């Protein structure tokens, strides 16, 4: 047939496959930029963004479909669906129009918005403004950058007063602190005179300035006349006043912030029916906000920066630190507020108001914001953010609480920063248990209820009643050369296993690699207990290591929070009964010829009531009339009804999952071939299939009973 190759691949088929490859190749980059997920497969991103489930098939299955004339349409349909979803993601995330708007705003190319960093954007806008002032930017070499003076100042991050607060904690935040400091005090490359102790150098003699040198004017009298007007930063660097010379960076930042205010005003006036204009305006104000917030980083990027300057960077940080320290001193010493700052971080304050109500907290918070704002020149402004009631301050950059943003808000919103509920380096079960425990604590303020809930969840893990998806870790892969020799990292361990079988199966750099921890023989290092979730699903003898998940994953985050109340959550675990299990691990020691003798001994339980029996036989011997305890044998009618209902339950579960999977795939199936690890039904389907095999054994038992 014309247009086909030897394998039956039509030109149309090749075009579809090539188009699918091109879509998939860029999808990972788009996903990581726009959304924060534990997994960035198309299946995961499509579900969280488009709320659509799609199946995943193995390459062997797709090849078999393609080579068979009767099923080739399924392979084509699979790739067409993936192409369509990729374009749906681009449309839903508004990536094209938003990226184009940012490219126009920054004056850079479309692809550079996605591929280049923040320094590229800042420099694009800064150079356009500096050219109009007959200024050029220096290009320091690597050697000049390495010889530059190291930064001496860091932002203020207080050690919080860690505890559980049942009284209001007001959170206040300086609005765009670093850009505001640069505008208010005229901090810029073009206005910096260098460190004060160097200004005594003879006129015309160069002295160190950033990665380059600076010379004083031949006539020092002009500088002496400006001594009283100079802006001297806390780190001892002098800057010209705005009256004499307005810096490039302050002008740029002021224009950016003013433009953003105008764009936000236009966005409020824009009607809800004009969705396209609203998206453009939102993209514009978001881009302006981002460029303002990263301008300071451009001046202080002393390792890989394009034009770093320690004097400017340290001046901004030291001034921001001074502003925060003065604000803390004012709040703590004010007689009528009776407040105490319990935590401060870079540009934010956490103010504890003991003995005050929520409404009083809003009033005092607004007063604090207004009073502190008056202390500093414009546009430095302290903004009231929210009230936490109650909350937990765990440690630096780790806290959680019930958030109220306005006095009229009746229902609080759970807000967390830095703890495991919002982190992605753990498994979902950790986040779910911790969040629910904190919600119970904040809502009921009863630790006994939290204990009951935690023990129920731990018992589920011990009994194997938790989904595999909830116990799957996903860590970022840094590439084969991104690790030290001999590093025992799960993502690297699995990547090496995959590449030994297929060199093209190595994960992308930055891709999150899923893995689980299983039971193993005593003495095995933890790295040898790492398995891919698909391996565990395919091998029924592998069991998830409940002890590891409880003691190393679930309990430590809970302990860090509840220990502030004097609670030891580890005792909650030791109080639990240990359920027996009817399966054993097939993991063996390295170099052994096979499983140990303990592998062949499993506990025998009654298939009716689950009670332990004294039978020594297992397998067919146990089913052949001996799988029941004496109590179940003494009540044959009740036992038959019980086993019959259990069989029907297993069969209904398999039938229900089969119907859901057929609706997802789009056709009727004799056997579900989907292997998606991002679908919660995958693990349920495997468990239901195992239960169905048990149902067949129960039928044999009923026939022999």
TrEMBL record:
GO BP field: DNA replication; double-strand break repair via homologous recombination; error-prone translesion synthesis
SMART domains: POLBc
Source organism superkingdom: Eukaryota
EC number(s) from the headed UniProt entry: 2.7.7.7
Keyword Ribonucleoprotein: no
Enzyme class: transferase
Family listed: Belongs to the DNA polymerase type-B family.
Protein known as: DNA polymerase
Source organism per UniProt: Scylla olivacea (Orange mud crab)
């Amino acid at each position: 047939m014309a247009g086909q190759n030897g394998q039956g691949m039509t030109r149309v088929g090749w075009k579809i496959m090539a188009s699918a490859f091109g879509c998939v190749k860029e999808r990972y980059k788009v996903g990581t930029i726009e959304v924060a997920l534990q997994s960035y497969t198309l299946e995961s991103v499509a579900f969280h963004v488009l709320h659509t489930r799609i199946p995943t098939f193995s390459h062997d299955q797709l090849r078999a479909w393609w080579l068979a004339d009767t099923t080739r349409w399924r392979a084509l349909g699979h790739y067409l669906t993936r192409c369509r979803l990729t374009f749906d993601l681009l449309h839903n995330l508004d990536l094209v129009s938003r990226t184009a708007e940012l490219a126009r705003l920054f004056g850079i190319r479309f692809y550079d918005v996605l591929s280049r960093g923040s320094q590229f954007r800042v420099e694009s806008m800064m150079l356009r403004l500096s050219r109009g002032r007959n200024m050029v930017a220096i290009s320091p070499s690597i050697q000049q950058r390495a010889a530059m003076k190291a930064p001496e100042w860091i932002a203020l991050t207080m050690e919080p007063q860690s505890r559980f607060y049942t009284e209001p904690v007001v959170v206040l935040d300086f609005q765009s602190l670093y850009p505001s400091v640069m505008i208010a005090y005229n901090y810029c490359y073009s206005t910096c005179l260098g460190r004060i102790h160097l200004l005594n150098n003879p006129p015309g003699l160069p002295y160190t300035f950033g990665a380059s040198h600076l010379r004083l004017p031949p006539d020092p009298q002009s500088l002496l006349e400006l001594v009283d007007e100079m802006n001297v930063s806390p780190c001892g660097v002098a800057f010209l006043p705005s009256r004499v010379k307005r810096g490039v960076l302050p002008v740029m930042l002021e224009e950016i912030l003013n433009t953003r205010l105008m764009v936000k005003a236009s966005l409020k006036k824009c009607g809800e029916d004009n969705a396209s204009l609203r998206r453009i305006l939102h993209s514009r104000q978001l881009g302006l906000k981002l460029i303002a917030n990263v301008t300071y980083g451009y001046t202080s990027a002393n390792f890989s920066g394009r034009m770093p300057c320690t004097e400017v960077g340290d001046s901004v940080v030291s001034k921001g630190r001074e502003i925060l320290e003065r604000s803390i001193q004012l709040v703590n010493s004010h007689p009528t507020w009776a407040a105490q700052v319990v935590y401060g971080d870079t540009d934010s304050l956490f103010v504890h108001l003991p003995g005050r109500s929520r409404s009083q907290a809003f009033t005092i918070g607004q007063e604090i914001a207004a009073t502190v704002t008056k202390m500093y020149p414009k546009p430095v402004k302290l903004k009231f953010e929210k009230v936490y009631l109650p909350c937990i301050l765990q440690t630096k950059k780790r806290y959680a609480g019930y958030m109220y943003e306005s006095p009229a808000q009746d229902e609080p919103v759970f807000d967390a920063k830095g703890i495991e509920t919002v982190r992605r380096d753990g498994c979902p079960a950790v986040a779910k248990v911790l969040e629910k425990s904190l919600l119970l604590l904040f809502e009921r303020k009863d630790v006994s209820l939290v204990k009951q809930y935690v023990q129920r969840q731990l018992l589920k893990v011990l009994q194997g009643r938790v989904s595999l998806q909830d116990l799957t870790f996903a860590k970022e892969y840094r590439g084969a050369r991104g690790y030290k020799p001999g590093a025992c990292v799960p993502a690297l361990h699995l990547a090496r296993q995959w590449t030994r079988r297929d060199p093209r199966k190595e994960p992308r750099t930055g891709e999150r690699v899923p893995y689980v921890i299983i039971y193993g023989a005593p003495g095995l290092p933890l790295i040898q207990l790492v398995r891919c979730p698909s391996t565990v699903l395919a091998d029924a003898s592998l069991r998830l290591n409940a002890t590891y998940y409880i003691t190393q994953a679930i309990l430590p985050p809970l302990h860090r929070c509840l220990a502030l109340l004097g609670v030891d959550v580890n005792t909650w675990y030791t109080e639990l009964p240990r359920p027996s299990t009817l399966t054993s691990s097939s993991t063996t020691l390295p170099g052994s010829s096979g499983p140990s003798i303990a592998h062949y001994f499993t506990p025998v339980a009654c298939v009716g009531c689950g009670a332990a029996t004294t039978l020594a036989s297992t397998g067919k011997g146990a089913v052949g009339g001996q799988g029941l305890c004496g109590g179940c044998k003494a009540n044959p009618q009740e036992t038959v009804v019980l086993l019959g209902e259990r069989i029907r339950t297993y069969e209904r579960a398999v039938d229900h999952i089969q119907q859901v999977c057929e609706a997802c795939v789009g056709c009727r199936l004799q056997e579900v071939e989907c292997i998606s690890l991002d679908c919660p039904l995958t693990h349920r389907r495997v468990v239901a299939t195992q239960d169905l095999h048990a149902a067949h054994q129960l039928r044999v038992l009923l026939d022999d009973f």
